[in-house]
Automatic annotation (TrEMBL), chains A, B:
Segments crossing the lipid bilayer: none
PANTHER family in the cross-refs: HTH-TYPE TRANSCRIPTIONAL REGULATOR RUTR (PTHR30055), TRANSCRIPTIONAL REGULATORY PROTEIN (PROBABLY TETR-FAMILY)-RELATED (PTHR30055:SF230)
Protein name: TetR/AcrR family transcriptional regulator
Cross-referenced InterPro entries: Homeodomain-like_sf, HTH-type_TetR-like_transc_reg, HTH_TetR, Tet_transcr_reg_TetR-rel_C_sf, TetR_C
Upper classification of the organism: Bacteria, Bacillati, Actinomycetota, Actinomycetes, Kitasatosporales
Species this protein is from: Streptomyces tanashiensis
Amino acid sequence: MCSRTNPRSSRTGRPRSTEAHTAILEATRAALVELGWSKLTMGDVAGRAGVAKTTLYRRWANKNELVVDAVAVLFDELELPDLGSLQADIEHVVLQFAALLERPETKTALMAVVAESTRDEPLRERIRASIVDRQKRLVLAGRERAQQRGELPAGRDPMAVDATDDLIFDVIAGAVVHRALVSAEPVDAPWVARLSALLVGGLGAAAAAGA
Amino acid sequence: MCSRTNPRSSRTGRPRSTEAHTAILEATRAALVELGWSKLTMGDVAGRAGVAKTTLYRRWANKNELVVDAVAVLFDELELPDLGSLQADIEHVVLQFAALLERPETKTALMAVVAESTRDEPLRERIRASIVDRQKRLVLAGRERAQQRGELPAGRDPMAVDATDDLIFDVIAGAVVHRALVSAEPVDAPWVARLSALLVGGLGAAAAAGA
DNA sequence: GCCTTTCGCTACAGGTCGTAGCGTAACTCC
DNA sequence: GGAGTTACGCTACGACCTGTAGCGAAAGGC
């Protein structure tokens, strides 16, 4: 999860300072807010964290991996309380996600690391493990809950269920990111309501067609 | 559209070489393919184009603006032939868009410039004018065509029609980008069929509810 | 032919990257 | 308590990239 070469749980020697670890990640987020991605430098982060620049390189191979770790923890805030209906659940999590993307540190960092990951397979895996997969659980939970309520039919074919989960995930996350960062329009309640209605309607139509 | 300070159609003096212009943009795309975004340098592009580095800076203020122009022309390839049904039209344009995102130069450049645009308002406007708005016309055309076929009802409220167009645009473009770049899964025919069915079903359900 | 603008070239200051080497600090095992 | 191991801060460094300045030459319009 954290560092460059996992020290193989070496029990001997001086342990790595956990305070330095958290200070570095916090300094990275602060630097992202102030400077953005392109003007963020390793030396600057080290200075903010009160740490030598070499210490950063001992733990992270480069800027990309450091930023992924610094931003990943923010995505753990996302939750999916039961609000009684599929549409309400979707609207709630979308608004949460939008609020997360409003923060300058996520806004500027997320797209940048994704861009780098197109040419860096290990980085892509790191992003998938630290960020993407943690959001996918929300889709699973929402779908299962809707099935228990009877809003969606129980899926027969597990392959088809998986495919639909993946589709919904890409649609929701993609639409919100595109709206917020590319179109640069607000992800507000009216828009979220439209999106949720579209999804619920589409899922209902698909279920009706499949029955 | 192109350069740093529009020379205000100055009729006097040596004109800018259009050959150099196209050579630079082509060299930029080639460099993106080979090196990716982060390792692309202005000096390298100048060398590939057979042009002095200073010439690049006379026309583009920085790497971001150059790359936007270099990639923008690729998006002009997208077209929307009439395939007889809304779902077929959607599937066709999504597959086109996916093929575009498969190319390494667009894959790596698009997210990078979007990331930079979160802290650079002029760059965002340049992206919007050069890339985003050119895609939105496809949504308008597809929706109008579906209304003429009777697949979708004629919109009463023009505000609501605009909002739905924007929503569909963000959903389609966002989902494809997220699938291709974040989830890193193939945008193939089965997935596209699922997405199109979801959208058509959702639009139909919304129309039925609105009637 | 004169004026204007662009061109290629060279040089440059400023900044960043990522590494190496050193002595010191912290912790474990014997 | 000592030996061994690892992390730390610090400094210095070469390599590279950025963006600009200045020069003489080239290519057009009037």
